[in-house]
Write a structure and sequence with these properties.
Layout: H1 3-25, H2 30-33, H3 41-71, H4 73-97, H5 102-121
């Protein structure tokens, strides 16, 4: 995998680590849960178990992307790119589920999508 694609894999992986922290560790803070269109503490309390679980999904995708790069070679890069494909797909699903999440979906999907395109093209 070329270096430019690897940079976007790292960006995508680090973004998903940050999202893990927001969803699994910081979700009950109003400044955090409002980013997910949760209105108040009552809604946040209901959504917290789902957000906690979703955060770990994001952490595992980040581990696949970053771990695949660290492992290197064809198999490691395949794992990294598969993780990026899952990240990009999840961003598309986010946008399809709620158009108000366009910015979040783009932030989630563009770096891994660029990694995939650049890995294939260069």
């Amino acid at each position: 995998m070329n270096v430019v694609a690897q940079v976007f894999v790292v960006v995508a992986g680090l973004f998903h680590v940050v999202v893990f922290a927001m969803e699994s560790l910081l979700f009950r803070k109003p400044s955090t849960y409002k980013r997910f269109l949760v209105k108040d503490d009552a809604e946040a309390a209901v959504a917290k178990p789902w957000a906690f679980n979703q955060g770990f999904y994001n952490l595992f995708l980040a581990a696949g992307a970053l771990g695949g790069l660290i492992a290197g070679g064809d198999k490691g890069h395949a794992i990294a790119l598969f993780s990026c494909a899952c990240m990009a797909g999840a961003g598309i699903v986010l946008l399809a589920s709620d158009r108000r999440m366009l910015q979040a979906a783009a932030t989630q999907a563009l770096p891994p999508l660029l990694a995939l395109v650049l890995a294939a093209a260069l």
